[in-house]
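Posted in: Structural Biology > Protein-Ligand Complexes

Title: Requesting predicted complex, fe (ii) ion in pocket

I'd be grateful if someone could produce the 3D structure tokens for the following input. Sequence and ligand are given below.
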Amino acid sequence: MSKNVVYISSKELISECNRIPVIKNRASLVDSLLRSYDVLWNKLDKIQSMPCTVDDLKLFHSQTYIEYLKSQNETNDLIDDDDVTEEAIEYGLGYDCPQIDRIYDFSRVIAGGTLAAVNSILDESATIAINWCGGWHHAQRDEAGGFCYVNDIAIGIQKLRSKFQRILYLDLDVHHGDGIENAFSTTKRVITMSFHQHGSGYFPGTGGVKDCGFGPGKGYSINIPYKAYMSGTIFIKYFLKFTALVRKCYDPDMVVVQCGGDVISGDPIGQCNLTPIDMGNCLTDILSWGLPIIALGGGGYNLTNTARYWTYLTSILTGVQLSNDIPDHEYFLEYGPDYELHLKPIMVPDLNVETELDDIYKCLVDNLNQFNVKAV
Ligand code: FE2
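-- Reply #1 --
Done. Output follows.
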């Protein structure tokens, strides 16, 4: 399959993504760093996204949630915590997902970005589509959560199902991809696989190894929980082992990968010790499968490290080599003192031990056998 890589962007998508309170201006940082590497930028096919329709939102979200977002479209930014209504809390809007101005318009633009990626795969204009403004995996059918207002991924996967029979959703964010697992926990047509930090009190608290789906989808939700300070040596070894097993059983025909940047060393919320090169090695293996891929963003609260990470992943997906020296551009000074693309891990012992990951592997093998997980 010859490779055509599209990069989804539009001024509106970037400016709306910039408004997410916890990652203000991140989308501009990412887009500017990508543009600063001419060799990369020139290789990408750029696609403008459009706001999605209400029918697109309904592919995953409930009518009542959509109506509530609509009703709040004129609410001003920055409501004090004390003024959050009970109704807003019921829909997850408050605290980590504060109501933002034009919340309905915002949701349509964010979901529209991922739908542009989906459409480019469906019409075969692309084999790889990238949307770093997408990846909001915690949003539930009728509730915002974990900085996610709209679940662009679940909406996108629903649309992909018109063409693809066996979609592998890979979630590499440091947090469990709970919204996606819940969306597809009862079907065999989508297999969800989330690698995430897990332990007492760590958000969102779900995604234990024994959580494997429901009814006809039993066995088709996969969770690989790990402990803090995950290092590249262990992660790459087990990532390759787990994904090879799932590929062999399920034979996916399409991969959607959420590449949350909070998995990278130095994130203020994630506690992993992984580098862009570690994660790039994982993505290189998935690329070698020769399947259509949609790569999405997600978390990532060290904004410049996240921009470094996604720029590097874009280079992996396009097969372009980048200089380690960050080119001069609008946000160049944010990358000091080294002004380098690559990051080094910190000196801290990895709390993960191979025997525990071997046990998780055995548990997965048992689940796959017990529930007869196979290509459908
Ligand atoms: Fe996250």
